[in-house]
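ok here's the first one, seq then struct tokens
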Amino acid sequence: VGLYGYLAYLPQREEIRRLSDQRDMKLQELSESRAVAKNLERFEKEVGQLEAQLKEALTQLPNQREIPELLKNISKLGKESNLEFLRFRPSKERPKQFYAEVPLELVFLGSYHNTGVFFDRISKMSRIINVENFKMAPNQKSGNQTLLQAQCVATTFRFLEEPRGKGQKK
């Protein structure tokens, strides 16, 4: 009887335990799959909403071809606001993970009111433009109005078609 237990029963008991553990794992996987299947419609709806949000966000990020047109529009808004540009210089693009920052150094002359009108018009553009490092100082008098010299960095963003770094998974 002891020999039977040692040679036949113990190996089968190990096999039963292994198969039982396998069954428990498969039941767990089945339970998880059922939970995913139960929520699949909700997940698909959520993916659709996220894709719509991404599409909307991308309309605010110009691509490489649209950057020159955007710069022309900013220049045009400055001239329409009666500002005189002393410097209008795009700086080197700063790539991030999925987008790139496109800074634009601006130095211009104009009245306080016209400067405010210019920034108001920029804020109403469909593209995202951040104005940073803004400085303003009196420069000269023109008639009864003091002209101010303002400088800032206007940064827009563009979508990078492919993520930075080669071999990265999407």
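and now the second one, same deal
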Amino acid sequence: MAKQTVYVVFYGADIHLRKLANQAVLGLTKNGLVEVRLRQFPAVRYTNCGNPELQSPSCLQDKCTAVFTIDDLKRGDAFLFGLPSNMGTMPQQVRGFWDYAAKNIKCGAMIGKIAGAFFTTATQSASHEISAQSFIATLFQFGLSYAPLGMSHPHLFCTDEVIGASIYGSGTVSSIHCARQPSCKELDLAHYQGETFAFIVSRTPIVTKRKSVCLSRLSRIFGVSRGNLI
């Protein structure tokens, strides 16, 4: 049986996220349950009309990683997204990507796909959880399901050191000046999240089967053919 494809997508301007993304990839590939692709969000700004314009990639992109596209979003079966917390929400480039996607992906195209996320914050109290909740609301608009980390690892019960993770996903605390690097426990959690995410995705029916059932129900509810929903 063909393996499902998981895209690990991170915000390229944040080197801390790249380190977490690398660990997530290692966890995803550990047991050979899924195919994995590493990507970064595009370094673009979006006009008032919603059209993307390239920004200078010098500080916004990891030059060794391919850019995540709308076609990747359509092709992927599941996604792990890496985001910095920007006062409780996502950066403008990431927000713009999802706004652009909403105008270029038809209703129902993302139904049945699974997502997870990992985060960076400046301090331990700097809105990790509210950033996760804000991002999840965006995912739900597209019909994606969210797979949380949950209280499923001993490191999440640690009280004697800073751990930048929560029930929503792994993460790291970078400090205000980005001087702090991900700790061993934070990297372990990113690896663990990748491993468990692969297990969840591999045990979930192929997207096309889940999507077929959902679209059949939607077509009955709205009284339109399935072809008009995708």
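notes on #2: The chain has a mean pLDDT of 85. The longest strand covers residues 114-121.
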